[in-house]
């Protein structure tokens, strides 16, 4: 929010150049965030891991319609972004468990706010 007008949303408090240069858009952290978590599976995986840690196969069985390849890609991307932790346990066969990092946990609050907004403004729930 702006310091002088607390009614201005934070995203509107800063002036954007007109037109917005493509190179600025490419490095914008907000745009990058939506590209990373805005796909079909990432938000669902973050929400599920927000409840508790999952083993890979357990997570795969819990998400109807996701292929093993897509789950693997999604988990790797979230791990590279620092949102998910992959822990390997030395057993035979090795057991792998996924959980949210503190950074991933911190994403749950704004993600919840965005989800609440989407539900409240869904065409099926609007008056």
UniProtKB/TrEMBL annotation:
Residues 28-126 form the HTH hxlR-type domain. PROSITE patterns: HTH_HXLR. GO terms for molecular function: DNA binding. It comes from the Bacteria. Keywords: DNA-binding, Transcription, Transcription regulation. This is Transcriptional regulator, HxlR family. It comes from Kibdelosporangium aridum.
């Amino acid at each position: 929010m702006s310091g002088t007008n607390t009614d201005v949303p934070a995203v509107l408090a800063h002036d954007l150049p007109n037109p917005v240069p493509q190179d600025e858009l490419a490095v914008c952290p907000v745009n990058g965030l939506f590209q990373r978590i805005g796909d079909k599976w990432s938000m669902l995986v973050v929400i599920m891991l927000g409840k508790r840690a999952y083993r890979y196969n357990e997570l795969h069985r819990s998400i109807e319609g996701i292929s093993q390849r897509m789950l693997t890609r999604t988990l790797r991307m979230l791990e590279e972004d620092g949102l998910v932790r992959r822990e390997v346990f030395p057993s035979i066969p090795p057991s792998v468990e996924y959980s949210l990092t503190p950074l991933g946990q911190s994403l749950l609050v704004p993600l919840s706010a965005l989800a609440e907004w989407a539900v409240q403004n869904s065409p099926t729930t609007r008056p």
